[in-house]
Amino acid sequence: MNLASAVNENFANYSNYLIRSAMFVYALAFLAHLAEWVFGSRSRIAVQSAALTAGQAAAQEAADAGKAKVTVQVATRGGGTTTLERPAVVTRASSSDRGIPDGPGAAGTSERGDLYGRIAVSFTTLAWLLHVAGVVFRAASVQRAPWGNMYEFSITFGSVAVGAYLLLLALKKNVRWIGLFLTTSVLLDLGLALSVLYTSSEQLVPALHSYWLWIHVSCAIISGAVFYLAAVGTLLYLFRDHYEVALAAGSSGNGRWADVMRRLPSAASLDKFAYRMNALVFPLWTFTIIAGAIWAQAAWGHYWEWDPKETWSFITWVVYAGYLHARATAGWKGRKAAYLALIAFTCFLWNYYGVNIFVTGKHSYAGV
Amino acid sequence: MSTTHTPGRDGKPTAESPASGAVPAQAAEPEDGLGAAGAQLSTAPADTLDSLPGLGVLGWLRWLWRQLTSMRIALILLFLLSLAAIPGSLIPQHSDQLKVDDFKKAHPDISPLYERLGLFHVYSSPWFSAIYILLFVSLAGCIVPRTWQFVGQLRARPPAAPRHLTRLPAYSTWQTDASPEEVAEAARRVLRGRRFRTHLNGTSVAGEKGYLREAGNLLFHVALFGLLISFALTSLEAASGGKLVVGGDDGFVNNPALYDDFSGGTLYGADDLKPFGFTLDNFDAKYATSGPERGTALKFQANIHYWTGTDSSHTTKGAISVNHPLSIGGEKVYLISHGYAPVVTVRDGQGNIAYRGPVPFIPQDTDLTSTGVVKVPDAIGKDGKPDQLAFQGYFTPTGSTDRGPVSTFPALDQPLLWLTAYHGDLGLDSGIPQNVYQLDATHMKQFKLNTTTGVNGEVIKVGQRIDLPDGQGSLTFDGVRTWASFTISHQAGNESALISGVCAILGLALSLFVQRRRIWVRALRGPDGTTLVELGGLGRSESVRIADEIGDVAVQLLPDAPPRPDGGPDDRPATAPESADTPAETARTTDDEGARA
Ligand code: HEM
Predict the structure, then answer these.
(1) For residue A76, what pLDDT is reported?
(2) Quick one: B163 and B232 in the same domain?
(3) Same domain, yes or no, for B304 and B414?
């Protein structure tokens, strides 16, 4: 065995250690998130349900937020500058909104809970760094983009999903509520990758030797990761919507389940979050399919052959288009649209796991 | 001061909309009580299911058409389309006839039903076509009126402000000493600076921005038509065929009779093929020889010489590899697969050469363990009568006799040929087309060979010979050549598909990322002589940024309309309009909605 391949094998081993360490730290983050939810439940506030039903809290909060004063320097016509206060902007909930405010988050009003939540985010960040390093070492060991088989695709996919979440956090978006679900699914994703999908590093079949691999597959991974975040938002939207309907119908909003629901963002916010995520990557997903068609044209001489992978990409795309339509169609907004979004994501998952494993086609590079 | 208010304070939307032409108010995104101001933020068709018509045939037709072009039906058709695409991904399709045949053999009871339902060619079946044709009719019925409507909106002015700006999703107000005219003029300037289309009416300004959203949406839907037309072109005019070429042979001339398989399009058949030809010099493959990736291919390349036209004396050197097709004489040649062709000499019972040449064997795994058949139809038996011979078995580029017919490396390190032999009737005259790579041994008898392996077969190296019992003939393994298979394809519609695809993505991005929104600024003189400035903004429901934008516009306005020290945002953030305008109704309606604190 020559030196280069020994180095490569070392790199592949480092990658495996890193991925395993990342899993360990993700598990810690998962536990910290659990603690966040548990402590948060002890901080129930009595006023909550009254405020919820009245919907006044929302308006009050919005008005308060709007009133937050910002001082601005403006040039006056005379040439000097004066300091003026930015005028208040009053926002009004849109018609789809029930006026129910966002929950306080997993930690509720508990400071302990919040501390655990922040610990969880730190662990997630650390785990993500290890995870990314694992992916990079894998790439170095095979000396190409780390997405030639399902194992590599899975680990990259997980790191992009967590990266997108951390990016949203860094942008000060209110998304910490995803944390518990995200760490759970990343643990599943990596566990599955290591135990079932693992392939020792190997070279690509020549058909994959193309810069389209970089373009097409990286876009597919990013699309999938963001679709995933949207799917979590959609799922929680359905639960929370259910809870809000019950609340509006006069249910007291007590009990363990309600206690979890209470702390989530409002149904309207979750719905908006899911929509924004889906709408953000839908054009990218469209591009992914078109890039795939261009690649197929270069490799096989046909840009579209209804190969199972192509077919399921198409199905996924059409169902997401249906979801976007549903949101613009009276009578289909809300829950029905949300179900469509979940079906669409299921199609995406099936295209990835199901088609790779159970259906053979030209895209058979799963390595399992 | 109520003079600036138009009549009709009953809370109903007033018809102050500027001439928006023939455009009817839309029900797409009704913002309660905003009337015309809130309408037409998109051109989506109204989504009320009309009551059933009672107007005879014409009425029915019109009703049907309206249903077909509604968003609801488009949605259902989209869903149907995705459902209909599923079976084709699970059941073998006619583009891979071998798999279809296997499936039919394995499921003889269900296959006739599948056949009748068109499940072996889903994507050209009548029901699949019906769905997408309906969808596209619906699409056409949708985008044509939407385009006119959009043009109407472009020519119209931004709609006038709703009476109660406080009802808008974002609202801001303060009092200033500047005159209403000055404020309105400044507001118009600010909005223009932010690239809003504006309309000044008295001392109120209406501004609208983000028309590209609608334009992008229309572009996207039109591009879908482009894609459909390109697909149609492709399937009408594309033709492709496959050909396996053995290295060092005469090569290939572009003639459908010489293809292994050929499928033409309606507009492009065998007669339209451009003349050209090529020979395969050799197939160049490099494999990793060590490390965990040992045996994986690093390079596949077919080295060829080609010519265009019918004159094969002037040839050009070329190379074809995966992902790098070669364009010859207007047609494209793709490398599809490759393998080995053992060169053999077969002698019959008379000692004459009955066959000599390479026989392509078909790879079964990545180490190129290959299977194949040497068919010798023209042999003469020992008794002088015609007797057909066949040798069937494996070829292993790197084999070992202890391990059985399994190759351990794809390169030619230790080539072995593993064969059993038959004689009798090959069945070539039966008229049923035969797969050249498979043997139908039903009318053949197997020879008993000198076997060492326990199987009735022999393993030979290059240069060695298998002798059939009793001098009935022999097979000599002379060497190995490479072969490569190619798809030669003629294509149309590629460019238009690409352009449509790019337009679709561009349109989508505009449609999803651009926010269409309206901002109104109203300046009114209050009873105390000061001017009340009001700003209101409306975006599509997904827009959060409208509040920020209102804030920014306000900040830009402040130099021209400095807030009065006692009338600034501090003192009267939200209650301003009532106290200035004092209509009791206003207060009531807004309170009812719980719009503000
Ligand atoms: C060929 C199938 C179709 C596909 C793939 C498709 C796709 C899309 C997509 C992805 C959007 C999202 C843009 C957004 O949310 O703003 C959209 C919007 C829209 N589509 Fe389609 N569409 C199709 C057919 C149709 C048809 C048949 C109609 C007519 C009824 C239609 C009417 C609309 C309208 C009105 C919008 C804008 C909705 C809005 O304003 O939010 N589409 N379409």
Answers:
(1) 41
(2) no
(3) yes
**pLDDT value at A275 more than 70:** yes
> Which residue, among B205, B183, B201, B179, has the nearest Cα to B192 in the 3D structure?
B205
User: Which own/partner contact pairs does B581-590 have at CB distance under 8 Å and 24+ positions apart?
Assistant: B581/B1, B581/B2, B581/B5, B581/B524, B581/B526, B581/B532, B583/B2, B583/B5, B583/B9, B585/B9, B585/B10, B585/B11, B586/B164, B586/B166, B589/B11, B589/B33, B589/B164, B589/B167, B590/B164, B590/B166, B590/B167
- The predicted structure's pLDDT at residue A101: 76
Looking at the structure, do residues B89 and B192 belong to the same domain, yes or no?
no
Against a cut of 0.95, is the pTM above it? Answer: no
The rounded distance, in Å, linking the Cα atoms of A20 and A63 is 48
Residues of A in contact with B234 (CB under 8 A): 303
Q: Which of B78, B293, B324 is opposite residue A318, by nearest beta carbon?
A: B78
Which residues surround ligand 1 with Cβ inside 6 Å? A 321, 324-325, 328; B 42, 44, 69, 71, 74, 78, 135, 138-139, 142, 217, 221, 224, 511-512
Residues B371 and B246 in one domain: yes
pLDDT confidence band for B583 (50 / 70 / 90): very low
SS3 A249: coil
Q: Is the model's pLDDT at A367 over the cut of 60?
A: no
Asked if the structure places residue B592 within a domain, the reply is no
Q: Which residue's CA is minimally distant from atom 8 of ligand 1?
A: A321
Instruction: Give the mean pLDDT of chain B.
Output: 78
Domain of B167 in residue numbering reads as 158-210+515-560
Regarding whether B280 and B249 lie in a shared domain, the answer is: yes
Instruction: Inspect the interface and report whether the beta carbons of A63 and B573 lie closer than 8 Å.
Output: yes
Give the model confidence (pLDDT) of A190-220 as tens digits. 999 988 887 765 656 666 667 787 899 899 9
Joined together, the tokens standing for residue A244 give 């809000």
Is B186 contained in some domain? Answer: yes
Least confident of A14-28, A99-113, B13-27, B310-324: B13-27
CA of B159 to the centre of ligand 1 (A): 25
The residue whose CA has the least distance to atom 5 of ligand 1 is A321
- Average pLDDT on A222-247 reads 93
Q: Among A116-125, A336-345, B268-277, B436-445, whose mean pLDDT is lowest? A: B268-277
Give ∠ CA A244-A231-A139 in degrees, rounded to 5: 150
* Alpha-carbon distance A104 to nearest alpha carbon in chain B (angstroms): 20
Shared-domain flag, residues B169 and B281: no
Among chain B residues, CA nearest to A315 = B82
Together in a domain, B327 and B460: yes
Nearest CA to ligand 1 atom 28: B139
Which residues in chain B are closer than 8 Å to A210, comparing Cβ atoms? 323
How close does chain B come to A234, measured CA to CA in Å?
15
CA distance linking residue A235 with residue A271, whole number of Å: 9
| Residue B249 or residue A111, greater confidence | A111
Spacing, Cα B313 to ligand 1 middle (Å): 57
Out of A290, A301, A330, whose CB is closest to B334? A301
Chain pair A-B, CB pairs under 8 angstroms:
249
Look at residue B48 and tell me if it is in a domain. no
pLDDT at A203: 58
Of B445, B438, B449, B443, residue with least CA distance to B475: B449
Residue B60 alpha carbon to ligand 1 centre in Å: 25
Q: Return phi, psi of residue A353, to 5°.
A: -80, -55
Domain count, chain B: 4
Domain assignment of residue B24, yes or no = no
Nearest-atom number in ligand 1 for the CA of B142 is: 29
Higher per-residue pLDDT: B586 or B297 = B297
Task: Read off the pLDDT of each residue in B294-313 and give the average, rounded to a whole number.
Answer: 80
Most ligand 1 atoms within 8 A of CB, residue of B132, B143, B217 to mutate:
B217
One domain for residues B167 and B130: no
C-alpha angle B388-B392-B398 in degrees, rounded to nearest 5: 145
Q: Does A92 sit within 8 Å of B171, measured CB to CB?
A: yes
User: Any idea what the CATH number is for the domain that residue B548 is in?
Assistant: 3.30.310.80
pLDDT tens digit sequence for B474-516? 999 999 998 888 888 877 778 888 999 999 999 999 999 888 8
